[in-house]
Amino acid sequence: MQVFAFHLMPWPDVPANFPGQRAVTIPNTLVDRDLLGTLINQYLDQLVACEEAGLDGVAVNEHHQMPWGLMGSPNLAAGMLAMRTSRVKILVLGPALPLYGSPLRVAEEIALVDQVSGGRVIFGCVIGGPPEYHVAGIDPSEARGRFNEALDLIIEAWTRPGPFEHYGEYYKLQHVNPWLLPLQQPHPPVWVPGAGSPETIDLCVRKGYTYSALPFFAKEFSDQSFAMFRRKFMQANGIADPYKVSMLVPIYVGATDEAARQEYEEHFFYFAGLHGGPFSVPGYSSEKGVVRQMSARPAFAWTARNWAEVEENSYAIVGSPQSVIEKLSRRIEDTGAGNLMCMFHIGNLPHDKVMASTGLFASEVLPEIRARFPHGPDWPESPPSQAEPTSIAGGHNAN
Amino acid sequence: MQTDLNGTSYRLETAGSGESVHFLYLPSIVGETRDLEIVGELLKLVPDGTISALEYPGCGSSIASSDEWKTVHDIIYGIGRLLNGMTGKRIVLIGSSLGGWLAAEVAAWYPDKVDALVLSNAFGLRLPKFPVRSPFFEKGSADLDGSFYTCANPNRVDLAKIVTPSIREEERNDAYGLFLHLLRVQTLAARIGFNPLMHDPRLEMRLGGIRCPTLIIWGQCDGVLAPRYGQAFADRIPGAQLVADVTSGHFPLLEEPAKHAPAIAALTSTIEDPL
Description:
The complex is a heterodimer.
Chain A: E1 2-7, H1 33-52, E2 57-60, H2 74-84, E3 89-96, H3 103-116, E4 121-126, H4 130-136, H5 143-159, E5 164-167, E6 172-176, E7 190-194, H6 198-207, E8 210-213, H7 219-237, E9 245-253, H8 257-273, H9 287-296, H10 307-312, E10 317-319, H11 321-335, E11 339-343, H12 351-372
Parallel strand pairs in A: 1-2, 1-11, 2-3, 3-4, 4-7, 7-8, 8-9, 9-10, 9-11
Antiparallel strand pairs in A: 5-6
Helix pairs in contact in A: 1-12, 2-3, 3-5, 6-7, 11-12
Chain B: E1 2-5, E2 8-15, E3 21-26, H1 37-45, E4 49-55, H2 72-84, E5 90-96, H3 98-109, E6 116-120, H4 159-163, H5 177-193, E7 214-219, H6 227-236, E8 241-245, H7 252-255, H8 257-268
Parallel strand pairs in B: 3-4, 3-5, 5-6, 6-7, 7-8
Antiparallel strand pairs in B: 1-2, 2-4
C-alpha cells in the first residue's frame, strides 16, 4: 500500500446555526485574520509530521470561499511542503484546471515544485466543485471540456519540445514553450479525482491516470464507483493494478474504540455541518452523471444523523488501532485501492488530537496494513495468478 | 414541425395555419412549448394567424444538439435565419423570461425581420441597484419552488403541470423527466448567462435600434427580476408600451394568458402593412 496524508484545511469556528449557504456567500467576516496564519502553519505541521511518521506522501487540494477548505492555492501549498520535507511524495490534488486563466500557469507551477522537491510531485488535477464555478464565474457547461483540454495541454507542454502552437476550443495559445519543466520524465504521475462520474473513470482508464475516488459518499455508492473503474480498467488492460486507484477516508485512532469515538464524534459533525451549496451549476455534470448522483441521495457524510450511520457507511474509520486495522482492511479490500489517503484532521479537531492519532496510526496501524497488503489489494475481477502490479504511485511508469 | 437551416434542425411546436400573422414564441427558463394556453387564446383572437413555439437546441424534443448554440451570437443568428423562413405577412416575436432576452436581441440585430415585439419579464439587462436573483444559485437549478415569486401570488400556477407536456415523450413518465427537461434549458441559459449573470452588457445600447411596435408585459411579483426592469426595457425601446401585471410573478403569459392575449393581438393591428 501507498499511504498518504490528505488535508482539507478547514476553518474551525463557524457557528453551528449560522444561516444560509456554506460556500461562496458565507461572509468572510467569520474569518479571524490574526489566527489564519497560525492555523495554516499548524495544518502544514500536521502534514510534515507524516514524513517522519513513515507515510509515503502528503496531499493538498483546492477550494475557495468556503470554511470547508481554505486552501485556495494548492500549488503554493505544495511548494511550502516541498521546502519542509525531503522524502514524501507531494500530491497536489489539485489545481482546478478550468478556473486558471491559462493551463500553462499550472504547468509551470507544478514543474517548479517538482524541480525544487527533487522530483516528488504527483500531479493531481480536478475539474473543481460546483461552488468554485460560482466563485470563478466560468460557464459550468464548459467544465469538462476545459478540464480535458487543459490537462492534455499541460502534458504536452511538459513533453513536447517548444515552441509550438496550441489552438483548441477553449485555449488558443500561439507560443507554448515553458522553460520551467518538471524533473520527472516524461512527466509526474497524474491522478484525477472523481465523484463517480463515468466520464472521469473513462478518462483515467483511457489515459492511464490514477483514479482517486472522492470520499463522503455512502459506502454503497462509493463501492459502485470503484467497481466501475476496476471493471473498465480490466476490460482495457486485462490485468488489475491497485495503484491506479486511490481512496480517501477520514481516520482517527484512539486508545480504545470508546475513547476514539468520544474524542472525534463532535468534530466529525462539525465538519459535516460545513457542507452546503450552492451546488446548482447546470451543465457541470453530464445528464448521466447527475442522475446517478441524484439517485444516491441523501446518502452523503453530511446527511448522517448519528454515529451509527457514520460507521455503517464508512464515512470515517474511527477506533482503537486494532479496530481501525480491521475496518480499513475491509475498505481496502472492498475498493481495490492500492493508494490510501488518510484524512487525520477533520472539521475543528484540535491539533494535539490530530498529532496523537497520526502517531498511533503510524506506530500501530500502518505496519499492519503494509504487511497485509504488500502489493495492494487483489481485485475480485482479476485472476488469482496475476503478477504483481507494475505501477507504484510516484513512479515514472505510473502513467 | 421541423425546419432545417444550414444543417441545423429546429423544431417548432406550431398551431394554426393562417398567413396573416406568424407569432414566434421563445420560451422561458422552464422551456414550455406545448399545450400553452396563451397559444389557444391568441388563435381565438387572431384566427388567421400561426403560432410557433421554438424548441431550443438540446431542449425539449429538439433534434438539434445543444452545441448549436454556444454563444448569444449563435442564438441571434439561428433565430434570425428562422425568421427568414417564416410565412405570414407579419412576424411577431414573443419572448418570455430567457426567451424575452433572446427576442430583444434578435429585434435589435434584425429590426427588418421583426414586425412586432412582445417581451415578458425578460432577462438581458443589468441594473446595478436591482440585482437579478440568479436562477443558478441555491437550489434553483431544477426546482420549481417559490423563487420565481415575491408575494403570495393568487395567480401562482402549477409550473410543473404546465411544463410537463413539453418534456420529451420518452422521459415524460420518468422519475427524473421534469428535472432533466429543466436542466437542459438551464444549461442553455448558463451557457450565455452564467457570467455575466443573465444579461448581455451590450444589449442596452442596441435597444434603441428596435423599430417595431413593442409591448412589454411585466409581472410585478417576480422574485427574479424587479419591476424596474420592465420600465428599463420600456425606456430604451422607442415607443414601447409597458403593461404592469400586479398579480403575476415571473411568467405572466403562463399565469394570465387570457388577460394578456388581447393586448398581444391588438399589437398586430398596429403593424404597418408592407408596401
